[in-house]
Predict the structure.
Amino acid sequence: MNFTGAHILSIKQFERADIKRIFDVADAMEPYALRKKVTRVLEGAILGNMFFEPSTRTRVSFGAAFNLLGGNVRETTGFESSSITKGESLYDTARVLSGYSDVICMRHPAGGSVAEFAEGSRVPVINGGDGPNEHPTQALLDLYTIRKEMRSKGRGLDGLRIAMIGDLKHGRTVHSLCKLVSLFSDIQLTLISPKELAMPEYIVEELRMAGNKVTITDDLTHSISDIDIAYSTRIQEERFGNKEEADMYRGRYRLNQRIYTEHCQPNTVIMHPLPRDSREEANELDNDLNANPNLAIFRQADNGVLVRMALFALVLNVADQVDKYSREV
Ligand code: CP
């Protein structure tokens, strides 16, 4: 694809070569993210960072990524601070804000809303999560992390075995990651969830059509003995009708050090898009795993900065100029 000026709305817009390009640029961003080098390649540029749902990682890492490239960040958080509460449409909001920004990142509770916003925007729009639909930049950083973790164990992505665990119906991160995996043809996926929270059928069909092997189960312990990646997810309470409904599923799939030791192979990498729900009644990924060197969740969050720097550099067409405007620290 031609990245310059493109909206990043869905994983479906990418081909394998695009993913390689993003990961190559992300690799080149490491000295800047580690502040061994400083670049001013986006000096004077403005990111409009608009988050209408809670976020810690995505919002702050988009902002940090833009700052690390030398740009400035303007934030809007919550509907209450936006004229959308006065009835302004997403289209009008986009027309206006794209006059003040060079690129816009947006999170919104309704599926399809970021694409609707992008129709009115005169600058690239990046989807930071639209309801239960997609979270494309999370999927990119997840696969980038998987590639790094596998490389550190002398492995590639060929024949990879991934288990996705938890609320696969509402989890936009696993939806996007499955769509990304559908670009590959030899990955084994085990989808572990309560039957009511299963991965949408159309996504399973896409995975199978691409040639990947998909197993669907509601059993955790017997399904994680032969995998490379255990990708845990939170019960997405905000997508249920009420808290009581979400409570029915909370805590059903807990991964802790005992279960890991008894059921997983010793090198199994543990991932989670975060936030993990640390309340006792939920606790899908126990704190007692924090000392486990295969717990990749914080490396995963760190990688978000690299991947988001790469996306900014590509859509603003400065990927080849980052070094030119740089200095050693
Ligand atoms: N993974 C993720 O999207 O985290 P936040 O909701 O904190 O942005």
User: Anything to note?
Assistant: Residues 55-59, 129, 135, 138, 273-275 surround phosphoric acid mono(formamide)ester (CB under 6 Å). The radius of gyration is 20 Å. The longest helix spans residues 297-315. The chain has a mean pLDDT of 96.
